[in-house]
C-alpha cells in the first residue's frame, strides 16, 4: 500500500439544479469519454481553496472567489488509483466568466446536467461525491475493508 494519500479537490459548479461536468479525453480507455467534475490534485504548498480556484480556471475558465466556495463533502477513497485519496468537494453557486472547455487535449465536452439526472457514464469516484452532496452527507468512505461510513 502507498505511504501517502493524495488530496483531490472537486468543484461542483451549480446553476439552479444543474451541475457542470466535463467529458474526459484520456489515453486510458477505462476513463476516455466518461464525465467528471472539474477537479485536480493539490499542489505542494497550495491551500485547498487555491487548488479549487485554480482547477476551475484551468479546466473551465471560470473565476471563483474563495468566499463563494463551500466544502460540501469529504470522501476518503481507496482503489480509485494507485494511491488512496481524500477528495474534497466544494460547491460554488457564484463565479465570473462563462464555462468553456479550456483543456481540449484533456476534455472533449463541457455540459450542464440536472443533479437528479446525471449521465450514466460518470466516473465512480466523483459520482459518489455528487450523490453524497445531494443526500447532504458531509463525509463518506469508499473502497476500504470496513463498512462505508456516511455522516
TrEMBL record:
Its cofactor is Mg(2+). Residues 4-138 form the Nudix hydrolase domain. GO terms for molecular function: hydrolase activity. SUPFAM superfamilies: Nudix. CDD domains: NUDIX_Hydrolase (cd04683). Gene3D superfamilies: Nucleoside Triphosphate Pyrophosphohydrolase. Signal peptide: none annotated. Keywords: Hydrolase. PROSITE patterns: NUDIX, NUDIX_BOX. Belongs to the Nudix hydrolase family. PANTHER family: ADP-RIBOSE PYROPHOSPHATASE YJHB-RELATED, GDP-MANNOSE MANNOSYL HYDROLASE. This is Nudix hydrolase domain-containing protein. It comes from Saccharothrix coeruleofusca.
Amino acid at each position: 500500500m502507498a505511504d501517502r494519500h493524495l488530496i483531490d479537490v472537486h468543484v461542483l459548479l451549480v446553476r439552479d439544479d444543474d451541475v457542470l461536468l466535463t467529458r474526459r479525453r484520456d489515453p486510458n480507455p477505462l476513463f476516455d469519454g466518461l464525465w467528471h467534475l472539474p477537479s485536480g490534485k493539490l499542489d505542494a504548498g497550495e491551500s485547498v481553496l487555491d487548488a479549487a480556484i485554480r482547477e476551475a480556471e484551468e479546466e473551465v475558465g471560470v473565476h471563483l472567489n474563495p468566499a463563494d466556495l463551500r466544502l460540501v463533502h469529504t470522501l476518503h477513497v481507496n482503489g480509485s488509483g494507485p494511491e488512496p485519496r481524500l477528495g474534497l468537494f466544494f460547491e460554488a453557486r457564484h463565479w465570473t466568466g462563462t464555462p468553456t472547455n479550456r483543456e481540449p487535449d484533456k476534455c472533449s465536452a463541457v455540459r450542464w446536467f440536472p443533479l437528479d439526472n446525471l449521465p450514466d457514464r460518470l466516473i465512480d469516484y466523483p459520482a459518489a461525491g455528487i450523490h453524497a452532496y445531494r443526500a447532504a452527507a458531509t463525509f463518506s468512505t469508499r473502497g476500504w475493508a470496513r463498512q462505508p461510513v456516511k455522516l
